[in-house]
Specification:
alpha/beta; Amidase signature (AS) enzymes
């Protein structure tokens, strides 16, 4: 059942929330040993919450649009009294004293949290192999990665462990695993969803969004979590139009551009072929599709891998062995800080902290971080020309250059791993909206995702195109 079908059945009394939750907890117990989508399954809490929802229904109350729907949370979203580790030893066992904004919103909508999902440590990775608690496997092929860093959330949905999940997207960390696992993944406009309670990686890039089996389910979850929250100073957009209201309006008359810089060299032929089929589907539905160029998009990856590590080096300075999680004793405070971080952080996190600290250091700031921010502005201006000058409504590209690669295939070569994000990082730099829609399979039988991009606050139109693509299959 989809999330919407579950909620309808629970709200009407045709199914109990408890029976739904028991069904999904059973699926997790049966299958997650092979996949490792979850760091923690909150079975007791989920059953208690389900009983509360059933009690509300019995009393004639409406629990909300996600009544009884099991939801998996990426393990960097704070949940009060439940361990939130970011898949890092340095936070192992830490229990936040508060809920993230999105967790509050899900609770108010009647959803049931069933667990915290595995991820690349502190969201730094593209394969969910950097977790301190072991890798997650792709449910479509257990020898392949699920993508990252929200690989646990994508795998949980793809495996049928939860109909929807939440992830975070800093450089493609929702969309890329969604593509590799064959599910829907959404990166909303920066500032549309409050980041309060999200453990920060790169604060000017991070955004929380849904992963789901259907476009309609993803739209409903986005409608639930996407409201203004005064606790996040970047969440100052007006409460947006609900995307579910216009989901079936189609694409007739829309101008859609195929982004040449993200759909040519470096894209596997079978992935490029699926993109062309998607183009044909939109044209058949009445869209005007043409090739379009955003020249500076080719510099997105280079700019991202200066800006994101720089922000990470600042954000992760708070993990010092004093306030949170792990502490390794030393002869002085400085020695304790060093020992704690040496043991608590994994190799990829250390690599990015060092890169970021170097880029921000005296004598190198202008050459690296300052220049990367100028490139970011150039990319924003180039996209704005396409949106507001050339009047394109949407842009298309592959989500990932390839289908899911084998576990261990890229761990020894960070640059090849970083190239997994080449199609997704430009949107994080610009702050605009994007989502991955599953669109068939490649030559190896593994899922391919098509990326639909929209301007700031363009989610309603973006979801219309996604629904057309979904229906065309």
């Amino acid at each position: 059942m989809t999330a919407l079908e579950i909620a309808t059945a629970v709200r009407s009394g045709k199914r109990s929330a408890r029976s739904v939750v028991d069904e999904y907890l059973g699926a997790i117990a049966e299958g997650d040993d092979d996949i490792h989508a979850f760091n923690m399954v909150t079975a007791a809490e989920a059953r208690t919450r389900a009983d509360e929802i059933d009690g509300a229904v019995a009393a004639g109350q409406d629990p909300g649009p996600l009544a009884g729907v099991p939801v998996a949370l990426k393990d960097n979203l704070c949940t009060r009294g439940v361990a939130t580790t970011c898949s890092s030893r340095i936070l192992e066992g830490w229990e936040p004293p508060y809920d993230a904004h999105v967790v509050e919103q899900l609770h108010n909508a009647g959803a049931v949290v069933v667990g915290k999902t595995n991820m690349d440590e502190f969201a730094m990775g593209s394969s969910t192999e950097n977790s301190a608690f072991g890798p997650t496997r792709n449910p479509c092929d257990l020898s392949r990665v699920p993508g990252g860093s929200s690989g646990g959330s994508a795998a949980a949905v793809a495996a049928g462990f939860a109909p929807v999940a939440l992830g975070s997207d800093t450089g493609g960390s929702i969309r890329q695993p969604a593509a590799l696992c064959g599910v829907v993944g959404v990166k909303p406009t920066y500032g549309r969803v409050s980041r309060y309670g999200l453990v920060a990686f790169a604060s000017s890039l991070d955004q929380i969004g849904p992963i789901a089996t259907t476009v309609a389910d993803a739209a409903t979850v986005l409608d639930v979590i996407g409201f203004t929250d005064p606790r996040d100073q970047t969440n100052r957009l007006p409460d947006p139009k609900q995307v579910s209201d216009t989901l079936s309006d189609g694409v007739n008359g829309l101008r859609v551009g195929v982004l040449t810089e993200l759909s040519g060299n470096g894209i596997a032929p079978d992935v490029a072929a699926r993109l062309q089929v998607a183009v044909g589907a939109l044209e058949s539905a009445g869209a005007d599709v043409a090739k379009v160029s955003v020249p500076s998009a080719i510099y997105g990856l280079s700019a991202y891998y200066v800006i994101a590590p720089a922000e990470a080096s600042s954000n992760l300075a708070r993990f010092d062995g004093v306030r949170y999680g792990l502490r390794v004793d030393g002869s002085s405070t400085s020695d304790m800080n060093t020992a704690t971080r040496s043991v608590g952080f994994g190799d990829e996190v250390k690599r990015r902290i060092m890169i970021g600290t170097y880029a921000l250091s005296a004598g190198y700031y202008d050459a690296y971080y300052g220049k990367a921010q100028k490139v970011r502005t150039l990319i924003i201006n180039d996209f704005n020309r396409v949106w507001y000058g050339d009047k394109f409504d949407l842009l298309l590209s592959p989500t990932s250059p390839t289908t899911a690669f084998s576990l261990g295939a890229r761990t020894a070569d960070p640059m090849s791993m970083y190239m997994s994000d080449v199609c997704t990082v430009p949107v994080n730099l610009t702050g605009q909206a994007a989502m991955s829609v599953p669109y068939g399979v490649g030559d190896d039988g593994l899922p391919v995702g098509v990326q639909v991009m929209a301007p700031v606050q363009g989610e309603p139109v973006m979801f219309r195109a996604a629904k057309v693509l979904e229906d065309s299959l």
